[in-house]
Amino acid sequence: KSKPDYIFMTLGANDTPKKKFASDPQTTYKENLRRYAAEAQKIGAKMIFVTINQGLSYDKKTKKAIFPKAGPFRKDRVPYSQAMREVAAELKLPCLELAENQRKYFEAMGEEAAGKLYRYNPALKKIDPSHTNKAGAELLAKIIMTELRKSNSDLKKYTIDPKLTWPAKKAAAGK
Q1: What pLDDT does residue 173 have?
Q2: Model pLDDT, residue 20
Q3: CA angle, corner 173, sides to 168 and 175, nearest 5?
Q4: Of 125, 14, 130, 19, whose CA–CA distance to 65 is shortest?
Q5: CA geometry: angle at 17 spanning 27 and 59, to 5°?
Q6: How many degrees, rounded to 5, is the angle at CA 31 between CA 148 and CA 1?
Q7: What is the CA radius of gyration of the chain?
Q8: Is the pLDDT of residue 96 over 50?
Q9: pTM score, whole prediction
Q10: By the 8 A CB rule, do 79 and 51 touch?
Q11: Rounded distance between C-alpha atoms, residue 64 and residue 57, angstroms
């Protein structure tokens, strides 16, 4: 049987309070993260945490993925990414900052361009604001790889620069 050398762990998108199997970010979610890290260690794998990716909202009128009312990130996911950062620090494990970097990237590129990074669901005949398309997945992979190269993980020595280029910040409307 083969065992992984590294495990990239990102979870929490389905733990938010509106979900059926919600977990509390300060209790059960943290306990789960600690348990998963311990299980990885038992099999000799090195855990690398990755904060939660950003989902958008769906606009029924325009049939597009749009920024949630609060801005270009899901506020309900914020406590879970923070809990992950805290557990990673406690366990002295790498925590790659996908959530905040994706938010900043989307904010810089603007709502319309960010919305085009999400998958079209032909069965529902609408954009899926939670799951990215290929271009979105490639962007997230570049963000993760950029973060891995800055981390304290020994895996970084096996990586190449993904050449993530940040878009110019969009000027605020009317200014």
Answers
A1: 46
A2: 64
A3: 90
A4: 130
A5: 145
A6: 65
A7: 17
A8: yes
A9: 0.87
A10: no
A11: 8
β-pairing, 57-59 vs 64-66, is antiparallel
User: Do residues 56 and 114 touch, judged by C-beta distance below 8 A?
Assistant: yes
Place of tokens 């990673």: 88
Q: Contact at 8 Å (CB) between 101 and 147?
A: yes
3-state SS string over the chain?
CCCCCEEEECCCCCCCCCCCCCCCCCCHHHHHHHHHHHHHHHCCCEEEEECCCCCCEEECCCCEEECCCCCCCCHHHHHHHHHHHHHHHHHCCCEECHHHHHHHHHHHHCHHHHHCCEEEECCCCEEEEEEECHHHHHHHHHHHHHHHHHCCCHHHHHCCCCCCCCCCCCCCCCC
Alpha carbons within 13 A on the beta-carbon side of 104: 8
Say if CB 113 and CB 68 are below 8 A apart: no
pLDDT tens-digit series, residues 45-84: 999 999 999 888 888 888 888 888 766 677 888 899 999 9
